[in-house]
Amino acid sequence: MNPFKLFLKLSLLQKVLFCLATFMFVNNIHKLTQFPIFDWAEINGVKQRTKIKITEIETDKFDPEKINIEKENFNTAIFDSVSLNYGSDKPYLLINYHSVSDYVFSKLWLCKMLIISKFIFEEIILLLILLIVLVVKQNNFFSKTVIKLLKIIVCLLVSLPILYFAKDFILLSFLHDNFKGNLSNLGLYSKAQNFFYPLFFALIIFMIIDVFQKGINLKQENDLTI
Amino acid sequence: MPIIVNLDVMMAKRKMSLNELSEKVDITLSNLSILKTGKAKAIRFSTLESLCKALDCQPADILEFSKTENK
Q1: How do the domains of chain B map onto residue ranges?
Q2: Under an 8 A CB cutoff, do B39 and A224 touch?
Q3: Average per-residue pLDDT in chain B?
């Protein structure tokens, strides 16, 4: 099997798995909270969609009588009791939450979109590398097409850290708005290498573009020498 | 470029076609065309020598320097 194709396939698989893992993490972020977040809650024995705002919790352990739940009128139904499932192994305290599905462009949705776009950008970079290999295989090593493709790769590589930063910023903002507790040790934020490597490779490719440009000039001069 | 190639003038003087010249000099038609239209960036001494031989002329008859030409 062609090692290049194998590398591409493995890289694609790794990226799909990583994207899924990150996506699942953002999707299940409510599991970190002491109280599960439901779009649906059991109100007066009937499951229905609701908005729950927990404003005050006196003890670490959940006791429905000791928490003050602001009840909101939803679908014109006024309710007296709210039953929530409770998991004791969730160390982070939810102080305020508005249902994600209440508004489409919520911070979590933005986070998900950024993760997906980061994944798409990385895949585009891989495809562009494949395209460059194909162009080079046609004996057009010093061609303007290669330079164009390399320039697109540089743009995508530079935009990757911006996406990482935006994702981190939005996630941090969401967590600060909704959670109380030490969030720095959760490993939610991008590592420094995620910012460094794309910029480093962009710089290298930028230098390669310069070399290619000079190569094209030399080739053109050679072609026009009779 | 301020260097003007007067290959077409010499060819007309010698009443030689491009095909005929390319056969004599052993240069492809496309390369001769590049030379004739002034798109060429450089010319080898060997090419110049064979052109001069084929057209029975001096290099100065083919190449000319012009100060005013700024193409």
Answers
A1: 3-64
A2: yes
A3: 85
